[in-house]
């Protein structure tokens, strides 16, 4: 049973629409690649991109309507983070809506670097880890999550 939705399964219609949504997103990606590679002119790219994006928006609305995403007595806030990656974007959206009142983004902290340079003799993995730590520190200063519960 899904702790957030209280639903044991997703409806067949929602599963079909989720597959269509994935297909549309892949088509959009291919279209963007074709335009970048010069295989599709700008006018065609804009027209087709608008059509695919319309389909994506409509399918996202269908998923939200067909998937019951209401909190239940079994709603367990502590497990949302551990289950996050297992769920659809629609579930994640509703979880965020249920848990967060708002997100406040502050300016970049004064005196804090925004990037890291690779040190002499430093491995690529070491630099990536150091850069990831800097990003976490920046985000900790810049982002305030205002919780509803």
TrEMBL record:
Name this polypeptide is given: DUF222 domain-containing protein
Taxon lineage: Bacteria, Bacillati, Actinomycetota, Actinomycetes, Micrococcales
């Amino acid at each position: 049973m899904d702790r957030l939705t209280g639903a044991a399964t997703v409806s067949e219609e929602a599963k079909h629409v989720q597959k269509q949504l994935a297909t549309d997103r892949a088509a959009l990606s291919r279209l963007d690649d074709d335009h970048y590679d010069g295989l599709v002119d700008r006018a065609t790219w804009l027209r087709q991109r608008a059509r695919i994006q319309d389909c994506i928006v409509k399918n996202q609305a269908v998923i939200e309507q067909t998937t019951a995403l209401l909190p239940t007595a079994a709603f367990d806030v502590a497990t949302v983070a551990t289950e996050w990656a297992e769920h659809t974007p629609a579930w994640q959206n509703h979880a965020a809506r249920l848990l967060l009142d708002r997100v406040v983004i502050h300016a970049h902290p004064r005196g804090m670097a925004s990037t890291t340079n690779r040190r002499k003799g430093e491995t690529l993995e070491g630099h990536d880890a150091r850069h990831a730590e800097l990003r976490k520190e920046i985000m900790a200063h810049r982002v305030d999550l205002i919780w509803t519960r």
